[in-house]
Design a protein that fits this description.
357 residues; alpha/beta; six-stranded mixed sheet; 10 helices; 6 strands; globular
Length: 357
């Protein structure tokens, strides 16, 4: 019995040493990319442990025909599973990226009288980071209505341990601005937990308000700068015209004094107008914040984009087998939990669509 246990341990040694070699390689990459260690320290770690592991690996290869091939077969199977999952997810993301919604379509929706605005805030979850996913036109075509405030949310994990709360939510506003459509990328590290859905919702709305206020101030500041430049150009042109007229003819003292008074009056008017443009943009920001608060009182609805992925009719037979059968089997039996996305089940609305890759 003892000899049998020793034989089994020796046969499984190839799997253990293979796991150690993979761990050493991955830890070396983490030291170099994430921990920012110097190259010579990483090389010393990799060569030191790698040399020992290579010696053990060569000794275990002698047990390959005695059953050591089983861990390798199992590793190849798991690698094919992960490769299939990664391939389909990559093709799905590329499909969304190629078919993302253009600004022209949003302008059509904004000017379409058949599309109704429903009071409330709608959070549409998608994996697309850049632009608006193609499932949005599908939703509008099926139900010609949209919430008064729409936020496209994309949750992305980044290779850091933790992300500060003030850097977690990245907002962008989609034109036209009066349509109140926003994009939000929620970043989190591998040690971060999004937490309670109510807390996540409160943080998202809070940072949305902060973004609206900052964006309103920035827009008004740009408009004030452009108006001030235009007023300065008008005054400068008037000064040049008056100087040219004075040099071409003789003007009495009284007329010159009147002309000077008129120029001073014009300059005073321009200064007063510039001062009005430099007024703090409080009114616009307050109106936007009140609008968001009023929409928040009507409730927040979570919309989850669930895309059914199928192979394109013109694709190869291998691609059809991988996508239509293998990936479909994996997707039905291995699903991601929605708890990691901080979505309350009672306010969840699924939006389905078929992607052909």
């Amino acid at each position: 019995m003892i000899l049998k246990c020793m034989f089994e341990c020796m046969r499984a040694g190839i799997a253990v040493i293979g796991d150690m070699m993979i761990s050493t390689t991955l830890v070396s990459l983490i030291m170099l990319v994430l921990w920012k260690k110097s190259l010579w320290k990483v090389a010393l770690f990799f060569l030191g442990f790698g040399f020992i592991e290579i010696i053990y690996f060569t000794s275990q290869l002698t047990k390959f025909t005695g059953g050591g091939y089983l861990p390798i077969v199992l590793a190849m199977f798991l690698t094919s599973v992960m490769g299939t999952w990664h391939y389909v997810h990559k093709e799905r993301y590329m499909f969304e990226l190629k078919n993302k919604v253009s600004s022209a379509y949003l302008n059509e929706v904004a000017n379409n009288p058949d599309v109704r605005r429903v009071p409330g805030i709608g959070l549409l979850y998608s994996e697309l980071v850049q632009g608006i996913p193609p499932i949005f036109p599908h939703l509008i075509g099926s139900i010609p209505s949209i919430h008064s405030v729409v936020v496209f949310v994309s949750i992305k994990a980044i290779p850091v341990s933790s992300v500060a709360s003030e850097e977690r939510f990245l907002f962008r506003q989609v034109e036209p601005r009066e349509y109140r459509v926003f994009r939000c990328v929620v970043r989190h590290g591998y040690n971060d937990v999004l937490g309670d859905p109510a807390e996540f919702e409160s943080q998202l709305i809070q940072y949305l308000k902060a973004f609206v206020q900052e964006e309103n101030y920035y827009t008004t500041e740009v408009e004030v700068s452009a108006s001030a430049t235009e007023q300065a150009t008008v005054v400068e042109s008037s000064d040049k015209r008056e100087a040219h007229r004075s040099s071409s003819r003789i003007i009495p003292n009284q007329s010159a004094s009147a002309s000077s008074d008129s120029i001073r009056s014009l300059g005073g008017s321009a200064t007063k107008s510039s001062a009005n443009f430099l007024a703090p943009p409080i009114h616009g920001a307050e109106e936007e914040l009140k609008f968001i608060d009023k929409a928040l009182e009507k409730g927040v609805v979570y919309m989850l984009a669930e895309a059914e992925v199928v192979a394109h009719p013109n694709s190869s037979i291998f691609n059809k087998i991988v996508v239509n059968y293998v990936y479909s089997f994996f997707r039905k039996n291995f699903r991601q939990g929605r708890n990691s996305m901080a979505i309350p089940h009672k306010r969840l609305l699924k939006v389905g669509m078929t992607y052909e890759i």
